[in-house]
Amino acid sequence: MATDIADPVVPDCKGDVRSGARSDADYPLRVLYCGGKDLAKRHCALLPISVRACENSPKQEAGVGEGQGTAGEEEEKKKQKRGGRGQIKQKKKTVPQKVTIAKIPRAKKKYVTRVCGLATFEIDLKEAQRFFAQKFSCGASVTGEDEIIIQGDFTDDIIDVIQEKWPEVDDDSIEDLGEVKK
C-alpha cells in the first residue's frame, strides 16, 4: 500500500491562531506612545485623568473594561444634575479674642504656666513656644489646639513679654486666672 505522506503545512504567523496575530493587520505594527510615559496611547486612556501625560488620549473602547465609562462620562457624573440642597458650608464660630494665663501646680512647689488663646490673634503657636522657651530659659511645648505649656511660674513676666512681642494683643484681652488645678 502506497500512502501519500503530505508535508505538514506550517502556517505563517499571520494565520497562526495560537500566536494571537491578526490576519487583517499589517506587520510590522506601528505603536503610538503617550507623551512622557512608556505606555501605548490605548493603555494611557485607562489611567486616571490626573496621571495621564497626554490630553488627547483616545477614549476607552466599550469592550475593554465593562462597567467603566469614558473620562467625559465620569466628569459628567460628578456634577449635580438635579435640584437639591448640595453641600452646606458651615459657618466659623467666632471665638472671642482673649488670652488666658494660668499657673498650674505640679509637685511640691513646682508650677507650669499655661497660655491659651494666642491662636485667636493668628499668632503661630510653634513660633511663640520657641520664643517663650528662649526668653525664660526653660522648656515649653504646644499642647492641644490653642495651648502652650511653659515649665515654671512665669505668670508675672509673661503678660509684659506678650505685649512687647505681639502688639496686637492689648492689655484688656489678657486675663490672668491665677492658680488653677489642671
From TrEMBL:
<feature type="compositionally biased region" description="Basic and acidic residues">
    <location>
        <begin position="13"/>
        <end position="22"/>
    </location>
</feature>
<feature type="region of interest" description="Disordered">
    <location>
        <begin position="1"/>
        <end position="22"/>
    </location>
</feature>
<dbReference type="InterPro" id="IPR001950">
    <property type="entry name" value="SUI1"/>
</dbReference>
<keyword id="KW-0396">Initiation factor</keyword>
<feature type="region of interest" description="Disordered">
    <location>
        <begin position="58"/>
        <end position="95"/>
    </location>
</feature>
<keyword id="KW-0648">Protein biosynthesis</keyword>
<dbReference type="Pfam" id="PF01253">
    <property type="entry name" value="SUI1"/>
</dbReference>
<dbReference type="InterPro" id="IPR005873">
    <property type="entry name" value="DENR_eukaryotes"/>
</dbReference>
<dbReference type="GO" id="GO:0001731">
    <property type="term" value="P:formation of translation preinitiation complex"/>
</dbReference>
<comment type="similarity">
    <text>Belongs to the DENR family.</text>
</comment>
<dbReference type="InterPro" id="IPR050318">
    <property type="entry name" value="DENR/SUI1_TIF"/>
</dbReference>
<dbReference type="GO" id="GO:0003729">
    <property type="term" value="F:mRNA binding"/>
</dbReference>
<feature type="domain" description="SUI1">
    <location>
        <begin position="99"/>
        <end position="166"/>
    </location>
</feature>
<feature type="compositionally biased region" description="Basic residues">
    <location>
        <begin position="79"/>
        <end position="95"/>
    </location>
</feature>
<dbReference type="InterPro" id="IPR036877">
    <property type="entry name" value="SUI1_dom_sf"/>
</dbReference>
<protein>
    <recommendedName>
        <fullName>Density-regulated protein</fullName>
    </recommendedName>
</protein>
<dbReference type="GO" id="GO:0002188">
    <property type="term" value="P:translation reinitiation"/>
</dbReference>
<dbReference type="GO" id="GO:0003743">
    <property type="term" value="F:translation initiation factor activity"/>
</dbReference>
<dbReference type="InterPro" id="IPR046447">
    <property type="entry name" value="DENR_C"/>
</dbReference>
